[in-house]
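Researcher: Sequence recovery benchmark, item below. Answer with residues only.
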């Protein structure tokens, strides 16, 4: 019953969550970086203003794939969401936790305009203002270091790091990549996977 509720509320309302092609995170994939326990503080640190419910005036989705030595890494659900708030619905999708569908507003801010509902790699921007967020803001919310040389504790030149946008290598500062609608971003650490994702959905 809870699965149905979260699937209808969180994924059904944001249909792109369930339509991504290629590798979708599931139980068994590696999760070196779980969702952090202080999401509202991290959202504020990223320059975002948390809300008491989802705001859908500006609603776009980008997709993030992360690989370490060819292994797909989970981008967990609940990044940018206070999953402990009683108004946040909870469930399971693909064997991993999923959150969202705030039908009654939280008593205090509980959701960032940039967040993940589930572990499909979909980055949701749900905002009252038409402004694209950036990959750098998302990694701040995830509490994972990202700059031109490092991802988490992996850094050049000791570990090769490459970033791709819609399948094309991106050589600039990855923190500046805008999370435009339907954009596919792949962060590759160490050995590359056999195929670099190039499309969203």
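Model:
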């Amino acid at each position: 019953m809870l699965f149905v509720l979260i699937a209808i509320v969180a994924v059904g309302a944001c249909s792109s969550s369930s339509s991504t092609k290629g590798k979708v995170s599931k139980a068994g994939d590696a999760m070196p970086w779980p969702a952090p326990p202080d999401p509202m503080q991290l959202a504020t640190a990223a320059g975002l203003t948390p809300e008491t419910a989802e705001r859908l005036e500006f609603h776009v989705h980008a997709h993030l794939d992360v690989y370490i030595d060819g292994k797909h890494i989970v981008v967990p659900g609940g990044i940018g969401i206070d999953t402990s708030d009683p108004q946040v619905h909870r469930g399971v999708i693909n064997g991993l936790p999923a959150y969202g569908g705030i039908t009654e507003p939280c008593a205090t801010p509980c959701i960032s305009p940039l967040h993940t509902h589930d572990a499909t790699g979909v980055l949701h921007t749900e905002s009252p203002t038409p402004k694209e967020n950036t990959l750098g803001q998302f990694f701040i919310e995830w509490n994972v270091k990202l700059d031109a040389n490092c991802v988490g504790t992996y850094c050049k030149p000791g570990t090769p790091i490459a970033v791709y946008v819609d399948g094309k290598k991106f050589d600039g500062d990855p923190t500046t990549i805008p999370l435009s609608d339907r954009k596919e971003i792949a962060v590759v650490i160490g050995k590359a996977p056999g195929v670099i994702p190039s499309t969203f959905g």
